[in-house]
Amino acid sequence: MYTKQFEIRWSDVDANRHLANSAYTNFMSHTRMTFFIEKGFDMKTLVTFNISPVVFYEHMYYFKEAFLGQLLTVSLEVSGTSEDGKFFKFDHNFYNEKGENIAHCEMLGAWIDFSTRKLTGLPKELLAHQETFPKTDSYKILTKEDTRVSGKKPVHLTS
Fold first, then answer.
1. Which of 25, 27, 94, 110 has minimal Cβ neighbours within 10 Å of its Cβ?
2. Chain segment 78-131, per-residue pLDDT in tens
3. First to last CA, the chain
């Protein structure tokens, strides 16, 4: 399990005086990028291969409030990757100072090629790093169909 610690700042709190939902997203994003950097996916490497991670969804579950000044630990475990590295699914958990699990998030993402603006698998050099990712007990190999299980499709406005 990969973890990162944060202190809840004034700018992380909403009108209800607890941690804002946008702050949860920011903490997860920061945790993911720190994780990627430590696993060899730093900015220089991403520029070299002309790729970047993109988020398809983040599904949050909130269990308990968090407040200004509290310390949070955000965890990251990989619950799925595709064989070519194109898709990845992460589980994030938020823990308070007592170690209580206050929130959980399931996140699905992929890699995009900046030239084609299309999804792409990882280059061989980076695919090997994927084997070192901390995995959940329910880890699985993802297929394209796994990215469509919600059945959600765009509904466009009509004139």
1. 25
2. 999 999 999 999 999 999 999 999 999 999 999 999 999 999 999 999 998 888
3. 49
Contacts of 121 by beta carbon, 8 Å cutoff, 6+ apart = 82, 84, 85, 86, 111, 127
Look up the pTM and report it: 0.90
Nearest residue to 63 (alpha-carbon basis) of 89, 24, 90: 24
Assigned token pair, 96: 């308070």
The alpha helices in the chain, defined as continuous H runs, are 21-38, 43-49, 124-130
- State the Cα–Cα distance between residues 75 and 142, nearest whole angstrom: 21
Domains and CATH numbers, the chain: 2-145 (3.10.129.10)
In angstroms, the CA 27 to CA 24 distance is 5
Which residues have a Cβ under 8 Å from the Cβ of 104 and sit 6 or more positions away?
A: 60, 61, 63, 91, 92, 93, 94
Picking from 69, 108, 72, 61, the residue whose alpha carbon sits closest to that of residue 87 is: 108
